[in-house]
Each structure stands twice: as structure tokens, then as C-alpha cells.
Design goal:
The chain has 150 residues and is an alpha/beta fold. It contains 5 helices and 5 strands. The protein has one domain: Dehydroquinase, class II (Rossmann fold), CATH 3.40.50.9100. Bound molecules: 1,3,4-trihydroxy-5-OXO-cyclohexanecarboxylic acid (DQA). 1,3,4-trihydroxy-5-OXO-cyclohexanecarboxylic acid binds next to loops.
Length: 150
């Protein structure tokens, strides 16, 4: 008898600058859940879909670009909260276009109800889906969305 096992599909959950401070950072805007809570939710939701999840948070734009490039070989999709780089980074948008992986853009807060400079996203035009203002739940919805893609 031959038993074959297949590796689970993987998703990368990528968080940008200052999201390491979740829990204490402006809780009135971002809530009290920590980054560890975000990751636990994503891990559980991914597992419920038979997926595995990898995590990276960085305050550095180039590290996020490197992670997106590397995901080409390891992940079937990316959940991305690029934090403030959402509103500034052509490099992150280009990396997403370059790798061609589905990316679900997530923001904890409703950026459209906030300052004008948060209304524009360089990520949105290259994202497969966008989940804004759903707090911690948004990460779970993003995993659901990736799980439903072929
Ligand atoms: C954020 C919104 C951004 O405008 C901000 O710079 C962040 C967090 C959010 O999750 O709501 O760092 O991406």
C-alpha cells in the first residue's frame, strides 16, 4: 500500500509598520486585540479551511517587499495589512503585481472615515479583495476569501 500525503496550501499573513503595537496602539481606533490575537485567529481560520498560515510583521518597507517576493514559492495567497505603507508604497504594489498571487488587503479601521491621506491606497488596484473597518474579524474574512479561490 502506498500512502501519499499532500502538504496543505499556505497563506502568508503580512502586517506592516506599527501593527506590532496592536493592543496598546490607539485602542479607540484599532481595538485591544494584540498581533498575537490576530495571528491566533488567522491560524485557526486557516486550519478550519485546511490551510496553513505563515506570519510576518515588519516596520520596514523592503522587508515587506522581500516577503511578498518570497511568497511566490511558498504561498497560494497573501493577507496584507500594509499599515501606513498602504498610502505611500509603489514598491509594495509593484511586488504584488510581480508575483501575481492573490492578495486580500485588510485594514482594521475604516480608513475612509479617517484623514484624507488614508483614503488613497496603492494596494487596492492590485488587490483581489479589500476588507476595511471590520476590526480583527477582517483578517478572518480575508482567510475565508483566499480559501475560496482555486
Ligand atoms: C491601518 C490603517 C492605516 O491608515 C494605518 O496607517 C495603519 C493601520 C488599519 O489597519 O486600519 O497603520 O492599516
Amino acid at each position: 500500500m502506498t500512502v501519499t500525503t499532500s502538504e496543505p496550501r499556505r497563506v502568508l499573513v503580512l502586517n506592516g509598520p506599527n501593527l506590532n503595537l496592536l493592543g496598546t496602539r490607539e485602542p479607540g481606533i484599532y481595538g485591544t486585540a494584540t498581533l498575537a490575537d490576530v495571528e491566533a485567529l488567522c491560524r485557526d481560520r486557516a486550519a478550519a479551511h485546511g490551510l496553513a498560515a505563515d506570519f510576518l510583521q515588519s516596520n520596514h518597507e523592503g522587508v515587506l517587499v522581500d516577503a511578498i517576493q518570497a511568497a511566490r514559492d511558498t504561498a497560494s495567497g497573501i493577507v496584507l495589512n500594509a499599515g501606513a505603507y498602504t498610502h505611500t508604497s509603489v514598491a509594495i504594489a509593484d511586488a504584488i503585481s510581480a508575483v501575481g498571487l492573490p492578495v486580500v488587503e485588510v485594514h482594521l479601521s475604516n480608513v475612509h472615515a479617517r484623514e484624507e491621506f488614508r483614503h488613497h491606497s496603492f494596494i487596492s488596484p492590485v488587490a483581489t479583495a479589500i476588507i476595511i473597518g471590520a476590526g480583527l474579524n477582517g483578517y478572518g474574512y480575508a482567510i475565508d476569501q483566499l480559501a475560496g479561490l482555486p
